[in-house]
Amino acid sequence: MVNRKNTVCLPTHSQKRIPTYVVRKEEARALAEEVEALQKQLFVLQETRNSGDIQFTEAKNQTLRDFIFRQQLALASTSTMLFNHISSQTENPIKMHIHLPKQWTARRETLVGLKETKFRQCRDYLEARCHNLDMTKDHLSENQYEDADGNFRYQRFDVTRFQGKSLKQVYDALVFFMFNMEISISETLGDITVRDDYDTIDDDAYISNHRLVSKHDGVTTEANAATFAQNCNGLGSSSCAMVATDSIDEDDLHPYSLSEFVRRDVSAAVMLSEEKSRDSSEEDEEVEVVMRRAAFMKIYSPSFDVADNTLATMHERIAQWPKIMLQIVREMIETP
């Protein structure tokens, strides 16, 4: 049988600490070697024993179970390495630095100038994130953690399909939520959420600069963000729509008040497209709307005292926002 080792021995240096990713890499290598040894053991059993022998069958099954278990351990170790890498990043992949000046004309020019770059950035990320995914099925993954600066971070990615609905129906419901979310959030979570629309541009696309202020349990959070929404052409002859939101880093006209409020940032991307339904036949080209969505949220560590329970509740509530959006969109498109 294979000699299993529960620990991996690495050279130690009294002067230098071995990085975590090096340890994880060595653990993954050791697990891969053990998997290879188990495969060889299975081969030997198959060659030397009669397949009708009960003992052989039991040994074979146990070896297969060990093989699968070692593969799962290797995958778990790799997942940890990936999560450690993601959680060590200082910025999210769809974040753009946005600085809005005081003058209204210059503010508008800045937002309009960012629109195409923002859409392209979000589209590229969502397409890469969906690479090799089965788009005929729904998907959901989420992570939350505290970064090196004590800020709370929440990340969510999902794929949702809407059968029997048009792209325009889903897009209109999505835009309605994005530009009226304070109502839904207040009603669902019980928070007092107020929206200040600093500016709204409506030409070939919706562009909005707004501030959301939410109060819960005596603590007020604020978010200053820009939202972009537009119908656009997708790949080939299919149609698509994009909605993107990003936080404002610097606002000369409306600066953050960190001594009074807890800052909350959000970068989000939503892409709608029409795809062939998995239930449709070659003769019946029925389409469905597929929504790809990614959200990166951040609650800054407060610069004033906040009770631990209040902070924990704040973290739980921000994770509800993407769920509320999906709930409202579904309710709107199902309403006759």
TrEMBL record:
How is this protein named in the record?
Answer: Uncharacterized protein
Note the coiled coil stretches, chain numbering. Answer: 21-48
Q: Which organism is it from?
A: Phytophthora oleae
Q: Which UniProt keywords apply?
A: Coiled coil
Taxonomically, which superkingdom?
Eukaryota
